Amino acid sequence: MSEENSEFRSAPTTTGRLEVQLKMLDDGIEPPHYAHPGDAGADLRTRLDLIIAPGERVLVPTGVAIALPEGYVALVHPRSGLATKHGLTIVNAPGTVDAGYRGEIAVTLLNTDTAQSIHLSRGDRIAQMVIQRVEHALFVPVAELPDSFRGTGGFGSTGGFTSG
């Protein structure tokens, strides 16, 4: 990284907000923004009109490219209203946008409804993007892990899951 870009590495502004460089790839789409004060996710929109059939998944472009500062990630989450009302979700939720990625953000949507298609129009909100700090771990090989209260208990070990 060059000296002129070193400030971008830690880019909080004087307002306390993180500065994220944004390139709109489609001038007809609204840029990501927070619908309400205090919201964690900024809305992403579709650049296409499309119909997603029951059980179908489709990669949907948003017209947005960003440059995150080093040490941050954008996580793309489903919109709860679309999930509840229409069964629309994101296949790999949350989707991960790494700091080094500069291409268009696209969202793999899945229609979980078994009977109804979902109609989306260009500009509709389809997902929300949450920006978070990332910790990079130093993975240290060991022969044994220390004991813990949970131990090796995995899926269903707390009694929350029962089958058949």
Automatic annotation (TrEMBL):
HAMAP family: dUTPase_bact. This enzyme is involved in nucleotide metabolism: it produces dUMP, the immediate precursor of thymidine nucleotides and it decreases the intracellular concentration of dUTP so that uracil cannot be incorporated into DNA. Keywords: Hydrolase, Magnesium, Metal-binding, Nucleotide metabolism. One of its GO terms (biological process) is dUTP catabolic process. It catalyses: dUTP + H2O = dUMP + diphosphate + H(+). This is Deoxyuridine 5'-triphosphate nucleotidohydrolase. Its EC number is 3.6.1.23. InterPro entries: dUTPase, dUTPase-like, dUTPase-like_sf, dUTPase_trimeric. It comes from the Bacteria. It comes from Arthrobacter terrae. The keyword Kinase does not apply.
